[in-house]
Amino acid sequence: MTETKKIAILGAGESGVGTAILAKKQGFEVFVSDFGVIKDKYKKALEELAVAWEESGHDETRILASDLVMKSPGIPDKAPLVKKLHEKGIPVISEIEFTSKYTDAKIIGITGSNGKTTTTKWVYHLLKNGGLSVGMAGNIGDSFAKQVAEENFDWYVLELSSFQLDGIVDFKPHIAVLTNITPDHLDRYNYNLNEYVASKFRITENQSADDFFIYDADDEIISKWIKENPVKSQKLPFSLQDRMEQGAYIEDNNIKININNTQFIMPTSSLKLEGKHNSKNAMAASTVAQLLRIRKETIRASMEDFQGVEHRLEKVLKINNVLYVNDSKATNINATYYALDSMSAETVWIVGGVDKGNNYAELLPLVNEKVKAIICLGVDNAKIFEAFGNCVDMMAETQSMQEAVQMAYKIADKGNTVLLSPACASFDLFENYEDRGRQFKDAVRKL
C-alpha cells in the first residue's frame, strides 16, 4: 500500500482528520471530503496541514480518481459513492486499517455490543499503572492515526466498533477482546444478526496461534459462532457461571484468573463499579493485565480505584432522597437490561430515541419488577407504549430532556431512583449520547 499516493478521506471528523495528518506525514496526496459541514476545529487542523478539503457535498470525479479511500465509520457501505468506489475497484478501508500499517506497536483491540468503552479505559488504566508505554484510541479521545503520527507508544488499546472492523483487511490485534454480542445496529446489517456477529468476529480473522482472544463464555451467540467458525488465536474465556481451566471466572466471590499455571485472585467486593456486567468487564481487563505480566499488586490497586465511564450508570445527584442516574451510553436493549438489573430501588425510567430494531420483550420481567413509571423521550415512542403499556401505572411522552427530568422529579417518591437509560440511539433529539447525558445532568442540577 506504500506505493499509493492519492488518498481520499470521506468524513472530516476525528478519524478523518487524524488520517489526513498521518497520510500527509507518509507522503500521500490528501483530499478530505465531507457530505456535511465540517466543525471549525477540524477545518483549522486541515488548513494547518495545507491539504485540500471540501464540505456540504462530494466531488465524485476527484474521489473516484484516488488510489485509496478511507471512509469514516458513520458512512454506510450502501452509500451511493461507496458503491461506485467498490465498482471501480478502489480499496475503501477504515482508519484502523490504514493506521496499523504505520506502527510497530502491539495492539489490544476491544469490541462488543456493550462494555467496550469501560473495558478499554480499564485496560488502559491497568497498563499505564503497570508502567507500559501505552496509548488509547479508536472510539475514545484522539484518533489512532493522529497518535501514530505524533506519538511513539509500544502498545495501543483500541475501542473498536463493528463499523470500524467492517473496513479492515490486514489489521491484526495481538490481543482481541470481545465483551459480548447482542442485537445492535441491525439497521446497518440488513436486520440480519449473523451479519452483525460476523462483523464483530472480524477482530479475530487475521490473528495467529501467537495471539490471544479474550471473550465472554456465557454469551450464547459468541459460543455458537466459535463452534462453527474456529478461531486461530489462543482462547482465554471469562465466565460468571463456569470454572475456567484457562481464563477467568468467579468462585466464592473472588475473581480468579488462570493463565499458564499462574493464578491471580481478587475479591469482587473490592471493585468500585457495581453490577454483574462490571464483574465481566473487570475479568476481561484483568486477564489482559495478567497476560502482560503486570504485577499482581498493581492489578489489584488498579481494579479497585478505577472510576468508570461518564454516561454509563453515572450517579449524578441525590435530591430529596431520590437518586438520579445517567446511563445515556445505553443505546441498545442489552445495556439497558444491565442498568435495570442493577437497580435496587423503585425506578422512574426515562427511555427512547432512534430505535435500531429493538425487541423490548427482553426487558419485560425487569420492568414489571423494578419500574413504577416510564417517561418516553423520542420522536416516535409507539413501540415503547406497545411493549410496556400494561406493565406500569404511568407512561408519558416528552420532547426535551428538561421536560423529562421535571416530570420524573414530580413522579419520584423518596427512596426512588430516576434512571436515564434510553436503549436507543440519540440522533432524533440530540447530537450524540454524550450530548444527551450532559443535558440530563444539567437538567438534574437545575431542579
UniProtKB/TrEMBL annotation:
* Reactions mediated catalytically: UDP-N-acetyl-alpha-D-muramoyl-L-alanine + D-glutamate + ATP = UDP-N-acetyl-alpha-D-muramoyl-L-alanyl-D-glutamate + ADP + phosphate + H(+)
A Pfam cross-reference name = MurD_N
Gene3D superfamilies in alphabetical order: Mur ligase, C-terminal domain, Mur-like, catalytic domain, NAD(P)-binding Rossmann-like Domain
Coiled-coil features, chain-numbered ranges: none
The organism named in the record is Gillisia lutea
Where in or outside the cell? Cytoplasm
Task: From the UniProt record, give the pathway where this protein acts.
Answer: Cell wall biogenesis; peptidoglycan biosynthesis
Q: Which InterPro entries match?
A: Mur-like_cat_sf, Mur_ligase_C, Mur_ligase_C_dom_sf, Mur_ligase_cen, MurD
> Know the name of this protein?
UDP-N-acetylmuramoylalanine--D-glutamate ligase
- Residue ranges of every copy of the Mur ligase C-terminal domain listed in the record: 311-424
**Residues annotated to bind ATP:** G112, S113, N114, G115, K116, T117, T118
Q: Which SUPFAM superfamilies match?
A: MurCD N-terminal domain, MurD-like peptide ligases, catalytic domain, MurD-like peptide ligases, peptide-binding domain
Known role: Cell wall formation. Catalyzes the addition of glutamate to the nucleotide precursor UDP-N-acetylmuramoyl-L-alanine (UMA).
- Gene Ontology molecular function, alphabetical: UDP-N-acetylmuramoylalanine-D-glutamate ligase activity
Provide this UniProt record's keywords sorted from A to Z.
Answer: ATP-binding, Cell cycle, Cell division, Cell shape, Cell wall biogenesis/degradation, Cytoplasm, Ligase, Nucleotide-binding, Peptidoglycan synthesis
